[in-house]
Amino acid sequence: MAQVAAPLAFLLIWSSGFLVGRDASNHADPFWFLALRFVCVSLLFALAAWVARVPWPRGARRIALHLLAGALMSGLYLGPGWWAMSQGLAAGVMALVGALQPLFTALISVLLLRQRLPARAWAGQVLGFGGVALVLWPRLAASAGTPLAPAVVLVAIGAIVALTVGSMVQKHPLAAGDLRSVSCVQNLGAVSVLVLMALVFGEPRWDNSPLLWGYLAYAVLLLSVGGATLLIWLMRHGEATRTAALLLIVPPLTALQSWAILGETLVPLQVLGFALTIVGVALVRRA
Questions:
Q1: CB–CB of 88/148 below 8 Å?
Q2: Which positions fall inside the EamA domain (predicted)?
Q3: DSSP secondary structure letter of residue 85
Q4: What is the rounded distance in angstroms from the CA atom of residue 19 to the CA atom of residue 210?
Q5: Which of 49, 93, 122, 243 is the most exposed place for a label (fewest CB within 10 A)?
Q6: Is the pLDDT of residue 231 over 70?
Q7: How far, in Å, CA of 135 to CA of 132, rounded?
Q8: DSSP sequence for 94-153
Q9: Beta-carbon count within 10 A of 52 CB
């Protein structure tokens, strides 16, 4: 039951993050928003670990790996990704770049970890990415004339590489430990990176509106405590390539949520893309 419910819950929570992040940056500096978010998350997990009296990671090497995983999966993924969008990178382009993450995971698994992926898995990767491209095509076409510095695109790609490497670290050297204490340490790794980014690139912008605090609460409780914890659980209980393939469904699901909640347009081409993405993910997960 958990093997079915956990991926579905993860997808619903994770895809909503694009809607929150898109508007939260209008009310606060993204780096400081993210830094405060992960400080709150670390404190919540520390409290949960203390109440339950669970064991904490021990040894300098293991603690360093947990800090590294958090810095990569949260700090160096979300920080640069939000920065790239603040510099003019369209959300649709960022989502399309993010759809490369399952392919990056597959390449690392094959080239570095010497795993073998069947042809069905590769076909699913290509079909899924093509489906995402169709879903995002209207947004990509709308932003085609916007001039963009190559460095911004490279930063966005680097953010996805960071998420990929962090996920691999999470899966292999760190596939054990209580999620409460582990998540506390890993989120501290994210905080260290994001505070540094905020000091270098951020600005003192926080409008203190109830909406902003609502976004922060949602990001802490749903996106991090819920979504990120589910992602770690899925990485531990499944192959990295199969878990990463789920992320292909995030952009199409975000488009559906934007249509249902925000009233954005959804054309037949996007529906076709969603269907192709689901077929592609199914091929990868059954390979």
A1: yes
A2: 9-136, 153-284
A3: H
A4: 17
A5: 122
A6: yes
A7: 5
A8: HHHHHTTHHHHHHHHHHHTS-----HHHHHHHHHHHHHHHHHHHHHHHHTTTS---HHHH
A9: 10
Parse the chain into domains and list their residue ranges: 2-286
| Residues 6+ away with beta carbon under 8 Å from 238 | none
Closest CA to 76 of 106, 105, 113, 38: 38
pLDDT of res. 91: 66
Find where tokens 């994770």 sit: 14
Separation of alpha carbons 285 and 287, rounded Å? 6
- Give the chain's mean pLDDT: 85
The torsion defined by the Cα of 269, 274, 279 and 281, in degrees rounded to 10, comes to 140
Instruction: Convert the pLDDT of each residue in 19-68 to its tens digit.
Output: 787 788 889 999 999 999 999 999 999 999 999 999 999 889 889 999 99
Amino acid letter for position 176:
A
